[in-house]
Amino acid sequence: MTLAIAAFIFGVVLAYFNIQPEPVPWVDEPVFEAEMCERSPNTEQVVLKKSEDALKQLHPLVAKRGESFVRLASSCLDLNVRLTSGYRSAKEQNELYAQGRSKPGDVVTNAKAGQSYHNYGLAVDFVIIHNNKADYDLSADNNRNDIPDWQELGELGKALGFEWGGDWDTFPDYPHLQMDFGLSIRQLAAGKRPSNQATAPLADVLKPLVD
Ligand SMILES: [Zn+2]
């Protein structure tokens, strides 16, 4: 009897530890080393100028890390990146949703007004600019280091504390970076907002490079 109880308790303990999820690293370290970064404030400033509009009306940290994303893509990865979209009003989101449905073009989003992190200033979209053109080729290796540029940029975004849309299984969204600060779309739609002081993780190698 005592043995049966002991075996039962042992079984429960074992089951408990087996259902514990594997610890997930809080942030992916980027594929590059800090030594790879040759900071050129002038070049960064020129590149950044093209992303100015997309950086407006964002949560302060999303704007700050979004700026670092563009700067470090240039100085560390030798990739010219432009933020194409940031905050989107309900009207803008619905117009985008109509694209490929009631309006011509390709479907670019499954989110109606209020259903996207863009609507709360918590997401940015980017594109690689190569020879003055947007380069959406997922196998592009413009900096010739044998790593797809989109993968390097996804890693950089994640090292800056963003969630990268390229990691999503059902509807991968490679140009998309977001910070949810622990809030779901449902919570945001109900009026909850992250504090302006809310923080996000930052990879160790980036700490000396991001103020
Ligand atoms: Zn997006």
Write the topology of this structure.
Layout: H1 2-19, H2 41-49, H3 60-77, E1 81-85, H4 90-98, E2 123-130, E3 133-135, H5 149-159, E4 163-164, E5 176-178, H6 185-189
Antiparallel strand pairs: 1-2, 2-3, 2-5, 4-5
This protein binds zinc ion.
Description:
This protein is α+β, with helices and mostly antiparallel strands and 211 residues long. It has a single domain, classed as 2-Layer Sandwich (Muramoyl-pentapeptide Carboxypeptidase, domain 2), CATH 3.30.1380. 33% of the residues lie in helices and 10% in strands. It is built from six helices and five strands. Strands 1, 2, 3, 4 and 5 form a five-stranded antiparallel beta sheet that branches. A hairpin with a 2-residue loop joins strand 2 (123-130) and strand 3 (133-135). Helix 2 packs across helix 3 (60-77) and helix 3 (60-77) crosses helix 5. The longest helix is centred in the first third of the chain and has 18 residues, at 2-19. It is globular. The protein starts with a helix and ends in a 22-residue tail after the last helix. The model is unreliable at 19-27 (pLDDT under 50). Zinc ion binds at residues 118, 123, 125, 173, 176. Zinc ion (ZN) is lined by residues 118, 123, 125, 173, 176.
Helix and strand element order = HHHEHEEHEEH
**Considering DSSP H and I runs of 4 or more, what fraction of the residues is helical?**
25-40%
In DSSP terms (H or I, runs of 4 or more residues), the helix count works out at 6
- Amino-to-carboxy terminus distance: 64 Å
Q: Return the domain count.
A: 1
Q: What is the level-2 CATH architecture name?
A: 2-Layer Sandwich
Count of individual beta strands: 5
**CATH topology label:** Muramoyl-pentapeptide Carboxypeptidase, domain 2
Heteromolecules bound: zinc ion
**Largest β sheet strand count, sense and barrel closure:** 5 strands, antiparallel
Q: Give the class from helix and strand content and strand pairing.
A: alpha+beta
Overall pLDDT confidence: 89
Identify the overall geometry. Answer: globular
Radius of gyration: 21 Å
Query: What is the percentage of strand-forming residues?
Result: 5-15%
Low-confidence stretches: 19-27
CATH class: Alpha Beta
